[in-house]
Amino acid sequence: MSTAAWSVEQGLPQSGRTAVVTGANTGVGLEVARGLAGLGAHVVLACRNTEAAGAARHDILRTAPDARIDVVHLDVSDLASVRACADELRAAHPVIDILVNNAGVMHQSRQLTVDGFEGDFGTNFLGPFALTGLLLDRVLASNAGRIVAVSSKTHRSGRIAFDDLQLEAGFTQAVAYTQSKLAQLMAMFELQRRLEAVGSAAIALAAHPGGSRTSILREQPGSIRWVFNSRFRYLTGWFTQGPDSGALPMLRAATDPVATGGQFYGPGGRFEQIGSPVLVRAAGRAQDVDAQQRLFKIAEDLTGVSYPV
């Protein structure tokens, strides 16, 4: 694969294809949706705040006036909302060509979802896992379906606490977030293996945005928040990039004609924080097949969603 800088224009044309992007009302998700719309896709913005998603829709239409953009309500922290959204999408779309699981959180203190799951694990992993399973037959109906998990470079410091997945005893902000992002990657690898086993044309991939200047970074406590909100915020250019650049790894995973299942994309520049999207390395523990299969079964049990592959 070429190491030259990659741009959205190098992605496959998406005319006639339907893409669902979660958390697409702001930040990286909005730019992923904008990029897909610019390539001709019919894009569905699946967001918790539908008013903000409506504003995002109008923003995209200003840059791509001929695009077809819809909005559906989705709160990935609530399995009832996930099921309702999946039902709405299934009723409207017999085929979903691209699913980008972008929505996510980073809680500063331990919180529980309405279903009783630790907040980061439930929102970043279990909700997207359930949505993917509920929509998988629609992706399989595509002649070239793609499922993109949006992970983080911080997954490399993560551990799956199989004996305390809800972190009742071991919560810290970093432990919760990195566990959820590691779980996303592990499930992606297991899903790709299952897709290959049944000879599906659909593929599962992952990507991370590096150090993108989004609400997750700006809302962090202490020195990180201070830098983003102070007159010294220009210094963040050394290790962060705008959402439009942060979206490129996801767009490459979703549209690059030479991308294959099981690949992981991220920024190729300084410490994978900034730069053009390239193939990056997943942590060794993310590729532990036994752990992947164990986690996948647990996720099916916790969400009540069994995958049809």
Please give a structural write-up.
α3 (79-92) runs parallel beside α4, α4 packs across α10 (289-303) and α5 packs across α10. The protein is 41% helix and 12% strand. The protein has an eight-stranded mixed beta sheet with strand order 3-2-1-4-5-6-7-8, sandwiched between helices. The longest helix has 25 residues, at 173-197. It starts with 17 loop residues before the first strand and ends in a 6-residue tail after the last helix. It has one domain: Rossmann fold, CATH 3.40.50.720. It has helices at residues 27-38, 50-63, 79-92, 119-140, 173-197, 215-218, 222-229, 243-246, 248-255, 289-303; strands spanning 18-22, 42-47, 68-73, 98-101, 146-150, 203-207, 264-267, 277-279. The radius of gyration is 18 Å and the shape is globular. The chain has ten helices and eight strands. The relative contact order is 0.15. It is an alpha/beta fold.
